[in-house]
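By convention, each integer encodes one residue's backbone shape. The lines below illustrate.
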Amino acid sequence: MTNHDQFNILGKPIESLPIIKQTRMRFAAWALTLSMVSLLWVLSATTALAEFEQSVQVSLGSATGKTTYSNSDPTYSFLSGNLDHNTSGGSLAITYSRVLDSGLIFGGGYHDYSVSGQNAGYSKAGYCLTTSGATVPCTLTVSLRTDKFEISGIFGMVGYRLDFADAWSFRPQGRLGIGNSETFNYSGVATLSSPSATSVSAGLSKSVTDSGNMLVFVLPVYYRSNNILLGLEFQSLGQSLTYNSGTVSIKASLVSATVLTLGFLF
């Protein structure tokens, strides 16, 4: 390896590596929010003239996500994609819904999704400059961990009930989380190690909060027994947060959830 392959970190303290820095990028969808609120208001007015089924449901399940890292600086571009990792965790929801005789569903509730995970670390060999001015072979090892990516808050929903067998129904829904809180806790470690010099490490841990709207598509199948609803839901989650600082970009996303639901009709 020639001197031109030395990562361009010679003479720079490891604390200066731009591995995990951030700025906040807000996600807003107020037009969609106002449309949802208006629709729910209109639907609420129609219930005065229609028969309906109403229920309260408690849902628990798993959630999956992904965190990606990219760096456009040619010095550190080799880290792009090599710090990506999948995340997993749990989900919780409490929902109130009404089903009109027409099959139309509307309602709302509270939901919470939380995931975490880490990559195995990425290493690359090169050369480093010691404090005495000597050039020695060394290895740069970098790891990134999502300590927690969580989104929670209230949501409104609309959907439709399709009965396909005795006591069985398919109830596709669209949900809009309104002003949901978002928390991203992450940490990283960079280590320079060499057999002929003292290893140097630097770590960083950050917590960032934000708020935004979250769109969820739900594909649930329900079984009804008297006044009890049992359901299995597959959810597609479309929410992410991207933090940018200079050439560094870190994106945390929620991807999907699988949920078991217990509901009570009244």
Q: What stands out?
A: The chain is about 5% helix and 65% strand. Confidence is low (pLDDT under 50) at residues 1-35.
